[in-house]
Each structure stands twice: as structure tokens, then as C-alpha cells.
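Bumping my old thread because nobody answered last time. Still need a sequence for this structure:
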């Protein structure tokens, strides 16, 4: 029987999604009945410093931001006093679904629409759906290794013609950038293995740098195709007629990404990507831009893709980070 490389990837995607759903269910149950040890761990990480702004999401959906002025224990349990804009708010830690510094609350900084930034996934893991047709997920190992994998599920197209990708990224350096107060710079290298159908394999290597400011992240990338055919045939089954396109091994491309938060909305951002797969052909450039709504768990991207021709396509992406 012919071995199909996507079969293993499909099984892995299903296992990853099932595991994430199960872990989130167990996590939610544990957080609703927190042990004293878990409460002490949270309290120990809190710094009583007016210069540190915390982002606190409660189980009822309310959001509080501000420095934490006090940690106390009474008959109701361990509580904190938050210097929120509405005044000092007393919150019991058993009511808290997520707490962290304002800088760490944005857990989606490791990716834009499809472009990986140099920032690591870290201790997080996520599952997403791109264009409602491409299921993908990712996990971080420490602050260095980030692994993502995905598989398309386009109706009326057989499994032998679906698209798949595996991406391995290593964040090799991070430090203050010296340009903006509190800003950082990240550098990463990575490799991807992709299939446009069972027989259309292509491999890439890339390097990416990300510079962060108070509200904005800018990423630059250079990538090269190092494996695969020089001419590909894309089969769309009953959706479209087969067509060929050239993509020679050794081709070098570049990409630029932007992620900036609106000053008046802590949960809304503008994101954009500019891709050129072959620097010798500037006309082969794609632009994606739109808005991202994000909290500590869920991000929803809406925008458009402008392709050579020109053509305009909608872009939709949803990702969930438990």
C-alpha cells in the first residue's frame, strides 16, 4: 500500500486538538476549585510595585487592570487589592481566571496571520482555524522551541490533494532593544516542511527578527526554498482545473509583519503582512491586512489579502490558547 505522508500528520493534528480540548476542560475544573497551594503560588508571583500594571480576567468575564497594592487573607480566602481606574477593587484569587503583567497578557505575539514572529510560543499551546478550512495547532518548549503543524480540510478535494505544513522554530536570542523604553528584540531561525498534495513537497529555512515597543511589534523575515521540485502541479479536483506554477529550489523571499495595538482599545490590534516569495520578481507580492480582536485566550483575525492581478480575498483566522 502506498504510504501517504499526510496520514500521519492528520492523526497528529487530531490528537493535538483532542489533547488541547481535554486539557482545557481539566484546567477549567481545577481552577474553579483551586487548592491552597495553587493560590499561594499565584500570590508569590505578584509584586507590589506601582510601576507594574497587571491584567486580571475574572471567571465572570470582567477585566481589571492596574498595580496590585495589597495581598491579604480573611475568612473568604486570599484576596488582592487592585488600583484600577474605577478605584481600589478587592478580588479573591478564587475568582481569577487569568492574571499576569500587562505585557504578558498578549499570548498571541508568536504569529501574525500566517507569518511566525521571532517571539516564542513559550509555555503556551494553541489550536486555530485559518480561512475555516485549515486546522492547525502549536506548542512551545521553554522560551526557545516552538512547533506548529496544520492540515487543510477543503470539501470536494481528496486527502491526496490537501495541503499540510510542519514548522519548527528556535528563538535563539532576546534582549532589550535600546530603542524604546521597555522594548525588546527577538531573533529566531526555523525550518518548514510543506505539501501541496502528496507529491508536491517543498522545504524552507528562514530567519526572523522581531522588535517590540509599547504598543507595536515589527517583524522582518528572509527565507529560502531548499528542497522540492522546480515545477508544481496543483490539483483542485472538482473545484478548479489543475494548473502548474514554477518555484525553483534556491529561491529567496522576504516578508515584513506589523502588529500594533489601538491606543483606546486594549483588546483590538491592527496586523499586516507583506510577502514576496521571489526577490527577483517584485510583482509576486502579497499583502494581508486587517484587525485582530484578542484577549488572554481567544484571538479572531479579520481582513483581506491583496494578490497580484490584482485580486482581493477575505482573510479569517481564529485561534484559542487555553
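Sorry it took so long. Here it is:
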Amino acid at each position: 500500500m502506498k504510504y501517504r505522508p499526510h496520514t500521519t500528520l492528520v492523526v497528529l493534528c487530531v490528537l493535538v486538538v483532542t489533547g488541547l480540548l481535554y486539557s482545557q476542560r481539566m484546567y477549567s475544573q481545577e481552577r474553579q476549585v483551586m487548592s491552597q497551594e495553587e493560590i499561594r503560588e499565584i500570590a508569590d508571583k505578584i509584586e507590589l510595585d506601582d510601576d507594574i500594571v497587571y491584567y486580571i480576567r475574572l471567571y465572570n468575564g470582567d477585566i481589571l487592570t492596574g498595580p496590585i497594592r495589597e495581598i491579604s487573607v480573611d475568612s473568604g480566602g486570599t484576596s488582592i487589592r487592585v488600583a484600577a481606574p474605577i478605584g481600589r477593587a478587592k478580588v479573591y484569587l478564587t475568582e481569577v481566571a487569568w492574571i499576569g503583567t500587562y505585557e504578558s497578557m498578549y499570548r498571541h505575539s508568536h504569529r501574525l496571520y500566517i507569518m511566525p514572529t521571532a517571539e516564542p510560543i513559550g509555555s503556551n499551546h494553541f489550536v486555530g482555524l485559518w480561512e475555516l478550512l485549515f486546522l492547525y495547532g502549536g506548542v512551545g518548549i521553554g522560551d526557545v522551541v516552538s512547533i506548529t503543524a496544520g492540515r487543510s480540510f477543503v470539501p470536494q478535494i481528496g486527502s491526496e490533494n490537501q495541503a499540510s505544513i510542519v514548522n519548527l522554530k528556535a528563538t535563539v536570542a532576546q534582549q532589550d532593544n535600546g530603542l524604546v523604553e521597555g522594548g525588546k528584540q527577538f531573533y529566531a531561525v526555523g525550518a518548514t516542511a510543506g505539501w501541496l498534495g502528496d507529491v508536491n513537497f517543498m522545504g524552507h529555512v528562514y530567519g526572523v527578527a522581531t522588535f517590540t515597543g509599547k504598543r507595536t511589534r515589527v517583524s522582518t523575515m528572509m527565507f529560502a526554498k531548499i528542497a522540492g521540485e522546480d515545477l508544481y502541479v496543483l490539483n483542485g479536483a472538482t473545484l478548479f482545473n489543475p494548473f502548474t506554477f514554477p518555484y525553483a529550489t534556491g529561491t529567496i523571499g522576504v516578508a515584513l509583519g506589523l502588529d500594533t495595538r489601538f491606543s483606546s482599545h486594549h483588546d483590538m490590534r491592527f496586523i499586516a503582512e507583506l510577502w514576496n516569495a521571489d526577490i527577483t520578481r517584485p510583482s509576486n507580492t502579497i499583502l494581508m491586512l486587517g484587525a485582530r480582536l484578542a484577549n488572554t485566550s481567544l484571538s479572531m483575525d479579520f481582513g483581506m489579502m491583496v494578490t497580484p492581478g490584482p485580486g482581493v480575498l477575505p482573510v479569517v483566522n481564529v485561534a484559542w490558547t487555553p
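The CA atoms of residues 200 and 281 lie 22 Å apart. Let me know if any region looks off to you.
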